[in-house]
Design goal:
With 495 residues, the chain is α+β, with helices and mostly antiparallel strands. Helices cover 19% and strands 27% of the residues. The chain has a 6-stranded mixed beta sheet, with helices on one face. It has a 4-stranded antiparallel beta sheet with strand order 1-2-8-7. A 4-stranded antiparallel beta sheet has the order 6-5-9-10, with no helix packed on it. Helix 4 packs parallel to helix 5. Bound molecules: fe (ii) ion (2 copies).
Length: 495
């Protein structure tokens, strides 16, 4: 993973080759102290004393093995030898019961207050290896805590216990073997998950599922399961993820989003499917960089990471990639590059980003498969062609896609299915670029605009994703609907 002006973020990884100190079937901790007064507190203190021995086993938070509330796998660097793993915890390592005033009524109440967050430690091993290896990363809080006082009776945000806010734990594993299966666990007594690395060369078929406008709940979960059933190496999501607009008031949608991911974006044998994401308008308070600049009363500045993190707090906290400034590229061995672009949400489409895109594509001139993904389509199915971002993509990026002879580009945002004709110099041209979209993974479908648009080869108002298969010099693109039916096919050759 690389992007302009960034330094690779290597997280501490320790204990490589270290034997599992906790072993399997670690004795569980004392029962919750929440209803046991002084006895509970004594148990809790005893529990804290034993935490060093129990490693990252659950303690006062309960006797159940720890299982994260959300898990996100992605890559900051080479997907053939690394994996970045985020996992989320609700419960801390312990809690105290303290006297407080109730929200609203202001009456004395006794409530749990968390006393510590979970350690950023996981264990992994290559499939078949007997010994688990510990890896330590770092913790970061969710961008916001639940607005418990304000939300208690209204929107159901106060599910977690203790009400401390959630924590993102992040580890980057490096020096992994290419094209290999690994096992992973977050608690010695908890469930074992799996992940796999990508091959260094295209020695086997590599697959990924591409779409955008994701959402949560059963609709999204159905699509996730359909995608997972095809055993993709990863998923590429082009913006509009949980529809939270960077707002604290919509924090609960992220809970649902990660809950849906954990339940359904899992292949056979609990293999977790990594995701690569771009930003959409619904990742950003204000939606677009012009509105952000106007609200902040200062012009866009490439170096202003703080402002971007402020308006897209979830995007930068929950996804290690692309990171700042909001666009980047991930290179897979010698055969594939995924270019994650920002269609005018945190950065202007033209200027520095377009320059970076040209340089990025030039540097990958010999890579056989290069696929950009972004949110707002150059060739929309619903919105008018005069849309500012669409026009910006056509002006600044489309000439670069054509110059660098990219066969296929992924677009989203309009909540429909589409495949364009191959396009070059504003005309249908067999040597041109085909645009696949238009972002209808798990959200409501908008419907296709009634005016005839010359660039569309096929459109449908239907939920779908594209299953991409790379084999040798061939790439195939199958649009698949919620019933796991192939509704469209496209093919392209490596450059
Ligand atoms: Fe959307
Ligand atoms: Fe959108």
């Amino acid at each position: 993973m690389s992007h302009p002006g960034s330094k690779p973020r290597a997280f501490e990884q320790e204990g490589r080759g270290e034997r599992d100190e906790a072993g399997s079937g670690t004795a569980r901790s004392a029962p919750s102290s929440s209803s046991r007064g002084w006895l509970g507190r004594r148990l809790h203190r005893a529990c804290r004393r034993t935490v060093g021995l129990l490693l990252f086993a659950a303690c006062a938070a309960g006797a159940e093995p720890f299982d994260p509330s959300g898990i996100v796998l992605t890559w900051q660097r080479d997907p053939t030898t690394t994996m970045t793993i985020d996992w989320h915890s609700i419960d801390g390592t312990g809690f105290e019961l303290v006297e407080k005033k109730s929200p609203g009524h202001q009456l004395p109440v006794i409530e749990p207050v968390v006393t510590g967050v979970r350690e950023p430690v996981l264990e992994y091993r290559k499939a078949g290896d007997p010994a688990w290896v510990r890896a330590r990363g770092r913790n970061q809080p969710f961008p916001y805590v639940e607005d418990r006082a304000g939300a208690l009776h209204r929107d159901g945000y106060s599910h977690s216990f203790p009400p401390s806010g959630r924590t993102v734990h992040r580890v980057e594993l490096t020096a992994l073997s290419p094209d290999s299966n690994y096992e992973l666990r977050f608690d010695p007594a908890g469930p074992v998950y799996r992940f796999r690395t990508l091959p260094r060369t295209l020695t086997r078929e590599v697959r990924f599922a591409s779409g955008g406008d994701i959402g949560s709940g059963t609709w999204t979960e159905t699509m996730n399961r359909v995608a997972a059933s095809h055993d993709p190496d990863f998923v590429l999501w082009g913006g509009d993820l949980a529809y939270c607009d960077g707002a604290q008031a919509r924090l609960g949608r992220w809970y649902e989003f990660f809950d849906s991911m954990k339940k359904s974006l899992v292949a056979a044998d609990r293999r977790l499917i990594p995701v690569l994401v771009t930003t959409g308008n619904h990742e950003v308070a204000g939606g677009y960089v012009d509105a952000v600049a106007k609200a902040a009363k200062k012009p866009y500045a490439r170096e202003d990471d703080a402002l971007r993190a402020q308006v897209a707090p979830y995007f930068f906290s929950f996804f290690a990639t692309p990171g700042q400034p909001g666009y980047g590229v991930v290179d897979f061995g010698d055969y594939l590059s995924i270019v994650l672009l920002d269609s005018g949400h945190l950065n202007p489409i033209g200027g520095l980003q377009a320059e970076w895109l040209d340089q990025t594509l030039t540097a990958r001139a010999r890579v056989p498969f290069v696929f950009p993904s972004y949110h707002v389509p150059a060739f929309p199915t619903f919105r008018p062609q005069t849309d500012k971002q669409s026009a910006g993509v056509r002006e600044h990026w489309v000439p670069l896609f054509e110059k660098h002879r990219l066969p296929v580009v992924f677009e989203n945002h309009d909540h429909n299915f589409k495949r364009t004709h191959p396009i070059k110099d504003g005309m249908i041209d067999p040597l041109g670029v085909t645009y696949l979209g238009d972002g209808a993974w798990g959200v409501f479908v908008v419907g296709v605009a009634k005016d005839e648009r010359w660039f569309h080869a096929r459109t449908m108002p239907i939920n779908h994703f594209y299953l991409v298969k790379l084999k040798g010099r061939d790439a195939t693109f199958e649009a698949i609907n919620l019933r796991n039916q192939v509704i469209d096919r496209h093919a392209a050759k490596a450059r």
